[in-house]
Design goal:
The chain is mostly helical. It has one domain. The chain is 67% helix and 0% strand. It is built from six helices and no strands. Helix 1 runs antiparallel to helix 2 and helix 3 runs antiparallel to helix 5. The longest helix has 28 residues. It starts with 7 loop residues before the first helix and ends in a 13-residue tail after the last helix.
């Protein structure tokens, strides 16, 4: 839509920040289960790894530090989660409660391809591959 074209960079940055924050919240939730002595719904080493990827990956995507590689790992994690935990319960995400895993996998793949963008630590440190902010002319 042409009327939003001038806001493309800030909208992308806000999407990256919100998605990273929400994913971080999932990781913190898992860490709380572990530290509170709760029973994880999967083998403990896999639960620890998932909690670490969600927490650290979500944080890195949110602040825009190595967001591309972090998002790629997060995308792969969610693809694995979808195919191992959700897909066996039904063909479609709406049948197997896998909508969130599928959505995260695709959004993180987009972030991995697009990179950190503006409003990111990578942009502040002048990282290679981070496009400078366009003027709002």
């Amino acid at each position: 839509m042409a009327f939003l074209a001038r806001w493309l960079e800030p909208i992308y940055a806000l999407m990256r920040i919100v998605v990273g924050f929400l994913f971080l919240a999932h990781g913190v939730q898992k860490l709380n289960v572990l530290f509170a002595g709760g029973e994880p719904p999967m083998p403990l080493p896999m639960f620890w790894l998932t909690a670490l990827i969600e927490s650290l990956g979500g944080f890195l995507v949110m602040i825009g530090l190595f967001a591309g590689p972090a998002a790629f790992v997060c995308s792969g994690t969610m693809a694995v989660a979808y195919f191992f935990a959700h897909q066996p319960r039904g063909l479609l995400p709406i049948q197997n409660d896998g909508e969130l895993a599928a959505l995260y996998a695709w959004v993180f793949l987009f972030i991995a391809a697009r990179g950190s963008g503006v409003w990111s630590v990578d942009a502040v440190r002048g990282a290679a591959g981070v496009a400078p902010a366009r003027s709002a002319a």
